[in-house]
Design goal:
This protein is mostly helical and about 120 residues long. It has helices spanning about 10-25, 40-45, 55-60. It folds into two domains: about 1-50, no CATH class; about 70-123, no CATH class. About 25% of the residues lie in helices and about 0% in strands.
Length: about 120
Amino acid sequence: MYDFPDVRAATDAWWAGLRRHLGRQGVEAPEALLRRDDLMEQWADPGLVISQTCGYLLTHQLKGDLQPVATPHYAAPGCDGPMYASVILAGRRHDGARLADFAGATAVYSRTYSHAGYNAFRG
């Protein structure tokens, strides 16, 4: 879900290490990450070994379908251990400082099932 092109090399390196550790425990995993456009299809795949999703989706739409095994701790601004922050970007011509300042404006979001990328707009 968070396999952005800018960090793809780091994601691939992380996967290589995780795959080695899984293999030592007898878990077979693909050599390379499977990058599907349809994430819902990916999460429904009975051969899924491990993936990442937002917590809201996991506890709502995918509830009972997947088993959580880890929570990432990101070293990025706005993150504190497993906690994160959503960021809303605005054009320079808009001087809003609060979510309410953008009422009636046009918004772009990542996916309707993403808590940080969609539900955060609900305020």
